[in-house]
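Slide 14.
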Amino acid sequence: MGYLDSSGRSKDLEKGTKLELPLWLAAALGPRRKLVTCHLPRAFNERYREILRADATIVDLQGLAPYFYEFGRHLLPLVGAEGVTLGQLLTETLKQRLRRVMDSSLHCLEDDAAVHKARFDHLERTLFHTGRRMYQDHQLWLARRCHIITSIASTEQSGKRKLSEIS
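Slide 15: predicted structure.
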């Protein structure tokens, strides 16, 4: 595993060597094999946890970690006891930010959408687009401009006899 450390000259890593590993590799070497100990990355360190607890709506999750919630979810089994606090942080952050995401998706104009989405992570952007699409579909339905419901061809000739044919 020495090839993981570009500054090292040996083919093996010394015990206690600190490296940044991709999540997939840390997951493969971490909990079951106990070859590595995982520490929380910058986006989830104590400083950012305090900021998120105070007011999660002001944080630019896109700049901090574009896949904040998904990344955090994958970290949960890797970080041991910190996983509990990380899980609570992810839940509370989403609770605080969800109202703003949904309000933005329902009430902002097309021009303002880019400004609102700029600070959202991937999950929040997905929720924003879904909420926006559902709102637009609802508005079409209220204006009676949605498609007329018709039966499909396979049900029109279902093989059942009509009451008039029986008598």
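Speaker note: The chain has a mean pLDDT of 82.
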